[in-house]
Amino acid sequence: MSDLPEGALRLGPLLRYVDHNSATIWVETAETATVRVEAGGTTATARTFGAHGHHYALVEVTGLPSGTPTPYRVFVDDEVVWPSGDPDLADFPPSVIPTLQPGKPLRLAFGSCRVSMPHDEETNARYGIDALRAYALHMAGLVGDQPDRWPDFVVFLGDQVYADDTSPRMKEYIASRRAPSEPPWDELKDYQEYAHLYRLAWSDPANRWLLSTLPSAMIFDDHDVRDDWNTSWTWRQEMEATDWWHERIVAGLGSYWVYQHIGNLSADDRAEDELWRRIADHGGDDELDVTDALDELADRADQEPTSYRWSFSRDFGEQARLIVVDSRAARVLEPDRRSMLDDEEMAWLDERMRGDVDHLLVGTSLPLLMAPGLHHLEAFGEALAQGAWGRLGSKLGEVMRQHADLEHWAAFQGGFVQVAQMVVDVASGRRGRAPRSITFMSGDVHHSYVAKAWPDPALATSFETVVVQATCSPIRNPLPQVMKAVFKLAAKGQARPTGRLLGGKVPRSPLRWRMQRGPWYDNNLAVLELQQDRLHFWWSGGQAQGDLDRPRLERVATVDVSLPPG
Ligand SMILES: [Fe+2]
To answer: Among candidates 190, 203, 88, 95, which has minimal Cα distance to 139?
Structure first.
């Protein structure tokens, strides 16, 4: 396909972890090579590493001026590959590395669920306008008024790629190499197909430019691997009984490490990663091939979730801490001890759920606080499937769980209650100085909303900390019409203890909450700015207004949440 990047650069550059004076730039090259980045007066190089016949480099640029957007260029073996010279990118401003300025109020974008489909009229009629592309065109100043100040970074909260529900172009690629009539049919089979899927997702010119100039953090959700990934023990047994699942999960997690995960980390955190250390310590002119080690890491991470941590966190001075939690791969599924997070992952989160920062930001692909109706339904579904109402009920519960996607935090009551209790403890000042806000940022559910929480009155505790669930989904993959009515209904009322209703078979929640705004169903991307007196959120999406090539960015919702005096 001619609209995929050609030449020495197969994909990227992607601007990943950026702080006040350093940046990480990721690329996939066509051949083994040395990659050089020049930014201002600084130069950094990295040798590619290889996996499954593909070549990647992660270049760590240091010594950048803080709070400054520094233009940069990328060279592959001394040939300039970025700016690319691609006529489709000619209108976009030069890519920069926008370093953070310590103390400046953070502004971050977030969202989830984006199919990579064409942008023609017919496809837009089905999937709507790609909100990320509309945002990119706006950021680039190509559409509409003067762009707002850019976010400092974006957090992609899952379903960055769809490995199960594939696009026509992905299907074409699959058909060019194997029979789609054989399992896993037109779902992804192996690493090669994942490499192609990422290329399709991130090559569209506007998004490619955005990813080259807006630092990003990412965490997977189910579709990066498969719908309902790790919903239950039964789900896992069913998958493991097939002859294609093993290759799929190894390819899914291995490619995730390369394409998404490794760029999430700071240089210090990356240095703790054993596989990364092997790459970084590799001297000499040849390329290190990590295929076997990568497959091993992925296989082990799937079989023994405690062997690898996909969650990550970072501090922004005293202003904020961002914790991004893996709510898929670290699940405990044994029917008698289910939890969203295994003990080690929970301990890792517990260590980071502390005060002494002004704002605690928690990214989890699955909303911690769902619409009250859905929360109660999922809690009921779990209790039913666990046999609280006998064996027949248990079977029914499992069917409900798998077919109605009852697999969010509420469907893992053990873990939910633990995390909710951490929130109460942090907000009550029992874990360092209470922050002014605790915000859960999530996606997955194909609707967006804001909920506000307070402690269960039975706990006889109160706090000033603002506790918010802010959900942004989809970026591009709208919900079928019939489901919208269901979610609207579920959003009513407040989440209260379900104990009496369910005969004490669901634990009491330490938090209560109510929807403050929403749900709405637009394709959109959210932005949060940590202002002095409020959390200022807004959601925006694209409007075609006759010009499909240049959709305008329009606000879908604006929500201000007042903060206690700080
Ligand atoms: Fe999802």
So the answer is: 95
CA 153 to chain centre: 13
The amino acid occupying position 163 is A
Closest by CA position to 537, among listed 447, 451, 436: 451
Measure 222 CA to ligand 1 centroid, in angstroms: 5
**34, two tokens:** 């040395």
Ligand 1 centre to CA of 402 (Å) is: 13
- Burial of 393 (C-beta count, 10 Å sphere; 0-12/13-18/19+): middle
What's the gap in Å between 286 CA and the centre of ligand 1?
Answer: 39
Residue in 124, 196, 129, 139 with CA at minimum distance from that of residue 163: 196
**Which residues pair with residue 442 across a beta bridge?**
471
Q: What is the pLDDT of residues 54-83, one digit of tens each?
A: 999 999 999 999 999 999 999 999 999 999
Whole-number Å distance, alpha carbon 225 to ligand 1 midpoint, is 10
How many whole angstroms from 122 Cα to the centroid of ligand 1?
24
Distance separating alpha carbons of residues 324 and 313, to the nearest angstrom:
6
- Per residue in 127-171, pLDDT (tens digit) is 999 999 999 999 999 998 776 789 999 999 999 999 999 999 999
Residue corresponding to tokens 């704002």: 359
What pTM value is reported for the model? 0.96
- CA angle 533/539/540 to nearest 5° reads 135
Confirm if 344 and 307 have CB atoms less than 8 A apart. no
Quote the ligand 1 centre to 287 CA distance (angstroms): 36
Helix, strand, coil content of the chain in percent (nearest 5): 30, 25, 40
158 C-alpha to ligand 1 centroid (Å): 6
CA of 219 to the centre of ligand 1 (A): 11
Asked whether the predicted pLDDT for residue 1 surpasses 50, the reply is no
